[in-house]
Write a structure and sequence with these properties.
24% helix, alpha+beta, 145 residues, seven-stranded antiparallel sheet
């Protein structure tokens, strides 16, 4: 799975976005490496979080609204990371959440994305405001203040 996947390319054709270098995307993976891991995903039982499960037909607008009061929902943009060493995609938060299943279609396991802001045309990642996409839904990290 990558920004070059056919479905992701089609999404990119109709949504404003930017691609970011693997070096920039790596900062999310470096942060994730500081957290407790199981075999192939974070150990959410050891990390403060909230899960927004999928229902039939989700993600839908009402499902996307559930993120409004979460750390990731407070950002104007989301950085969709695919793997260390690969480009990442940055899009508007509501558009990415509405299509998160398409942006990660065919992914063999959990995938991670984080909040971002664009200030003076510079991208600022908020790696601590991240979430995990899986078949069950999205689990959002709740960093301790």
């Amino acid at each position: 799975m990558s920004v070059d996947n056919q479905i992701v390319r089609e999404w990119r054709d109709i949504h404003q976005h930017r691609l970011v270098s693997p070096v920039v995307a790596r900062s999310l993976f470096d942060y994730l490496d500081t957290l407790p891991w199981g075999m192939s995903r974070l150990r959410w039982d050891q990390v403060e979080s909230v899960t927004v499960p999928f229902s039939d037909g989700d993600p839908q607008p009402a499902w996307v609204e559930k993120f409004t009061d979460t750390p990731i929902g407070g950002h104007g943009y989301i950085t969709v990371a695919y793997a260390p060493g690969q480009e990442a995609l940055v899009g508007a938060t509501d558009e990415v959440l509405a299509d998160v299943d398409l942006l990660y279609v065919g992914s063999p396991s959990a995938r991670y994305f984080c909040g971002a802001e664009i200030v003076d045309d510079s991208l600022i990642l908020a790696v601590e405001d991240f979430a995990e996409f899986s078949d069950e839904g999205v689990t959002v990290h709740l960093p301790r203040n």
